[in-house]
Amino acid sequence: MQCPRCRQHYSTDGDLQPRIIITCGHSFCRKCVKVLRNDAGIITCPQCGQLSGEADAPNIALMSYIAVQSQRSDSSKIRDVPAPRHAVVCQHCNVEEVKFICYQCLPAGFRFCFNCCEIEHGRSFGPVKQHKPVPIEQARYGALIPSCMIHPNQSCELFSFTENRFACEKCTQEPDYQTENFVDIQIAVDQVRDSIPPLVTKVTAIRDRLQAIQSKLNEQLGRIDQAKGTAVDKVRLEFQDFEMALRKRQAYVESLVEETASYQKKHLNEQMERVEVALGSITTSLIQANILNQMQDYSLLLKSTDAVGLMKKQIVDQVADDLNEPTTSMGILIYISPEFRNTIDNLGMVGGGVAPSNFSCNNEHGMILLTWKIPEREVLEYEIMCDLVLNDPDNFNPVIVDQAFPRHFLVKAKVSQKRIDNLFPEMRYRFRIRSRDNSGWGWWSASILGSTPGFPLEIGYTGEIIKIPLPSNGLYRIVAHGAKAADGEKKKGGKGAIIEAQFVLQKNDFLEILVGGMSIKRGPCSGGGGGTFVGLNGRQDLLIAAGGGGGTRGYDEEDLDGKDASIDLYGLGGHGGQWAAGGNSGRAGRDAVANGPCWGYGGAGHVENSTTATSFVAGGTKGDGGGFGGGGGIGSYG
User: Fold this and answer.
1) Cβ atoms 533, 520 nearer than 8 A
2) pLDDT-based confidence at residue 142 (cuts at 50, 70, 90)
3) Which residues have CB under 8 Å from 284's CB, separation 6+?
4) Rounded Cα distance, 105 and 69, in Å
5) 289: pLDDT strictly greater than 50
6) Among candidates 50, 56, 81, which has minimal Cα distance to 68?
7) So what's the pLDDT on residue 175?
8) Per-residue model confidence (pLDDT) at position 514
9) What's the pLDDT tens digit per position in 58-92?
10) pLDDT digit string, tens, across residues 551-562
11) What tens digit of pLDDT does each residue of 243-283 get?
12) How far is CA 610 from its chain centroid?
């Protein structure tokens, strides 16, 4: 530890004793403090510049640390330090004779004169107030000898190694303590002092071994640092490559933004042309209103004029996301808000089906599911319109724009939901719905927005074959799970296969996916589970297939569980004496011989139908009791 001003090492006494400036708490050696204090007794701290007129004091904590470090570095100092019994100068003022010694201020004891002891231990600092200085006459061997624990009024002159305690002369005369080994304190000190060097030798040997271990660790750390430097260089190069890739991506995005702006400008121009056509339609409506005026139908004229005025206002104040698109007899698209539509409905001027209420969009099994409430009035069918939302550059892809949008879907009456497939992942779409009754098509509903989920995409059971277009070139991992067969009354149905593979696919490709369904239990028996199929750009080019589990008869205890699906090109045959072979290479499984109370039909394959189920190419319908995806049915009772 050094003085920050003169850079000399501190010591526990003399001119290099650390002294603390009370005002700011910075420490300097005694010699520097004398130099810093001016004639007026003021000290200017060299570190913070504060002025202090108070007397400096020894930095006892720092002196204690220096004393401990000195003992650790020099084994010859690891011994008792006798407090001198003759006159010694106070370590605080270096003037007065020592009267007290405090072993709590300094492990080796800090010597005070009477005045300095009262000043230092009378400060407001709480821990210092708890110190207990002792008179110098009571200090021996570098520590305060306590009073006897057995005879409190007697001073201790002996030490018992048996009980490891100090004792007085009276203790040796007590019958209860005759067996203890009492020796003079000085002899005990000498014995302890003599035992220290061997311990120091052992500690030194341990220290040397630790230093050797530290050297080896330093060598290993050096090798680790070298490897770290190599790894850092590698990471730096990888980040440079990543930065270059980001710059290329930025240039690509900028080009997409420019292309999007051009497309949107074109789209706005087309909408302006539609507005102009709509204004021409309004003019025609005004002419019809004049004709009504000539016919003196003032009541209907008033209603028509209000409706036309509201139409003008809605066309001028149109907002893209809240528009509807009824088509006039001339094929002109007129944008109508829900408020205007309600006004027209109340006038009784327009026929057509009622727009379904509670029209909402949800994600289910990896696809968009539209739901609505069936109107109270009779509806013949519904029409759903799906349009791509392109109002931000991140949602722009020229490949997708080239697809046919908007798309229209017809839905049968008494149906309250429609699952929409063949949509690109991670894109936003706008949906509207209208209905048709005997008087014709009604108004479009208010539009709702929905987003398709992105990859990884998990497709659950839907009961139909769906299409998923691919947005980009890349390596795609596909995992197919065949459906489990239902458990019978006494035996369990077989488990479906799990098949996984990777394919390099191109953008604009699309997948046709059939997710197999679980079979059902009928009586004690169950049909076969449906298979899961994934085709590329149709159903003929099969990418992957996972067979469904086999059904079980379950009549008797001797019957067996249904077989788990095969994971190779050959399907498994059934159980029993009249079992039939499984299908292979896309062909269907054979039917068991109709013998006994119950037997099973074979399941359909990729390209071949079975007796009761159809292949993936033909739609994947199930047999009686089987699962969707070509699951074999339950045979007749015979």
Assistant:
1) no
2) low
3) none
4) 16
5) yes
6) 81
7) 83
8) 94
9) 887 788 777 777 766 654 443 344 444 344 788 77
10) 887 777 777 888
11) 998 999 899 889 888 888 888 888 888 878 877 877 776 77
12) 48
Q: How many CA atoms lie within 13 A of 249 on its CB side?
A: 7
CB 166 within 8 A of CB 145: yes
* Average of per-residue pLDDT values in the chain: 79
Sign, Cα dihedral of 617, 618, 623, 629: positive
Q: 465: which residues sit within 8 A by CB, 6+ positions away?
A: 512, 513, 514, 539, 619, 620
Q: What residues does 513 pair with on adjacent strands?
A: 466, 534
Q: Bridge partners of 475?
A: 504
Q: Which two tokens stand for residue 85?
A: 């019994």
Residue in 270, 261, 340, 346 with CA at minimum distance from that of residue 308: 340
Place of tokens 């929905």: 450
Cα torsion through 229, 234, 237, 242, rounded to 10: -130
What are the Cα distances from residue 63, in Å, to 21, 56, 70, 82, 161? 15, 15, 10, 18, 33
Structure tokens at 100: 């007290």
Q: Where are the beta strands (DSSP E) in 338-481?
A: 357-364, 367-373, 381-388, 407-412, 417-420, 428-437, 440-441, 448-451, 466-469, 474-481
Place of tokens 């509806």: 379
**DSSP output for 134-180:** EEGGGEETTEEPPBPSSSTTSB--EEETTTTEEE-HHHHH-GGGTTS
Dist. CA 631–CA 623, nearest whole Å = 6
338, amino acid identity: P
Q: Supply the pLDDT for residue 87.
A: 45
